Amino acid sequence: MKTALGTVAFISLGCPKNLIDSETMLGQIAAEGFVVTPDYESADVVVVNTCGFLDASRKESLEHINRMVALKEQGGVKRVIVAGCMVGNYRPMLDESAPGADALVSVNDRVKLVDVLRELSVSGELARSVAISDPDARGTVYDDRARLRITPRHYAYLRISEGCDHKCSFCTIPSIRGRFRSKPRAQIIEEANELARDGAKELIIVAQDSTYYGLDSEGRKSLHELLAELAKVNGIDWIRLMYAYPTQVTDELIALLAHEPKLLGYIDMPLQHIATPVLARMRRGSTRDTTMRLIEKLRTRVPGLTLRSTFIVGFPGETDAQFEELLEFIRAGHIDRAGAFPFSDEDRAASFTLDGKLPEDVITQRHRAFMEVAREDLFRRNEALVGTNIEVITEGDSQDPKYPTEARSRADAPEIDCTVRLKTKVAPGTILPVRVVRSMGYDLLAEPAR
Ligand code: SF4
To answer: How confident is the model at residue 130 (pLDDT cuts 50, 70, 90)?
Structure first.
């Protein structure tokens, strides 16, 4: 279907926060009267919402942009607009490596995308190379209501704050997304109600640091109160907490994790490392001791807790012994879901000036060794679930005719954790108990529990 305003397709890259940006921009575009199409090969305009976090993600963003520009040169797409995290900090790279883009709209100016599209649709022309990147916009608290959702209907990401005040030496996000700012609580609750009315049963709480919530706006950490209010939202059955910062986890939050039935016993808490000297060079503010004490408190007070975490391997100065200490920490089973990134030497991060940088092949080798240990640990855990009952939410059809339904357990976040395949066909968004009959390593096979 076409309107005078034209059709718009979106390519959304990066983290769940960028996905929410895409959904919010899509909602604004549709409200403006543009037709949103999944078919970017024939769309009038393609928007590539970029990720600028790591060298690898910038390369991926450039690949997508240039593929769309090639389509434009073949007469398919009329215009290519670049949005997202690359625009603010990597304009010269975009100008040099993606000169064919028609407009650049920075992540903090995402509400202005509609203006660019309207100008395009009215005049058919765009002042060559529009670039919107207002530094003051870095302080804006955004409204993510009225989204056009990309995720399956039954789960939704809910952003509770923007930006970050931490100073992790390897990270450029504060320079991209600005200082930490909490969303007003009432706005979050209204957004959650809107998502529930739109069919969401699972809310996945995201931020750069979700545990910092309220410190700026209410003068104290109040995530536990916000989560308790979200648990009262009709239609929401599961609340999953992502991006907790280890030094910001409060006793009140732990108590809520233990007692609030809708708050899943699941916490994603990036630790980045376990060796104290490495944590110090990362400027994480935590040590091995503080981390171990926190994990012990979580394990003791929240029975059946699933602890997910991510790590960086090959950080400048990481010795063989410190890397072995990290592997031992994973082998010891302190983390239920573990992932790792190879250190990326970002020239805009403080870590760029550190000494003791490791050769690329050593970093790659350590990343491989870490993923191997994490995989063995996860396979051991999944094997131990055979014969037990777990609760799952169904996602939709699987590729396996014998186990036609794909699902996720309370211990699995979308896209990054394990899946469960069910022996029977069940509609998406159904929460039910199942019995695990077999482990396939990362995936589990299950049947409805009698
Ligand atoms: S907490 Fe650290 S790693 Fe995470 S966004 Fe903030 S500065 Fe970056």
So the answer is: low
Give the other-Cβ count within 10 Å of 78's Cβ: 16
Three-class DSSP category at 259: helix
Q: Residue whose CA is closest, atom 8 of ligand 1?
A: 171
For residue 164 and ligand 1, the question of a CB distance below 6 A is answered with yes
Strand-pair partners of 205: 158, 241
Residue pLDDT, tens place only, 67-83: 999 999 998 898 999 99
Q: Is 398 in the pocket of ligand 1 (CB under 6 A)?
A: no
pLDDT band at 125 (very low <50, low <70, confident <90, very high): low
- Tens of pLDDT along 429-448? 999 999 999 999 999 999 99
Q: Give the span between the Cα atoms of 442 and 375, in whole angstroms.
A: 8
- Per-residue pLDDT tens for 184-242? 999 999 999 999 999 999 999 999 999 999 999 999 999 999 999 999 999 999 999 99
232's CB contacts (< 8 A; 6+ apart) are none
180 lines ligand 1 (CB under 6 A): no
pTM here is: 0.95
Task: Summarize the confidence of residues 144-155 as an average pLDDT.
Answer: 96
Report residue 447 CA to chain centroid gap. 30
The protein residue whose alpha carbon is closest to atom 1 in ligand 1 is 166
In angstroms, rounded to a whole number, what is the distance separating the alpha carbons of residues 213 and 222? 6
Distance 107 CA to ligand 1 centre (A): 17
Residue 279 and residue 288 in contact, taking contact as beta carbons nearer than 8 Å: yes
Q: Pairing relation of β-strands 263-268 and 306-313?
A: parallel
Map residue 137 onto helix, strand or coil.
helix
| All domains in the chain, ordered by first residue | 7-137 (3.40.50.12160), 139-384 (3.80.30.20), 389-448 (2.40.50.140)
Tell me if 20 sits within 8 A of 206, measured CB to CB.
Answer: yes
What are the start-end ranges of the H helices in 302-386? 320-331, 360-384
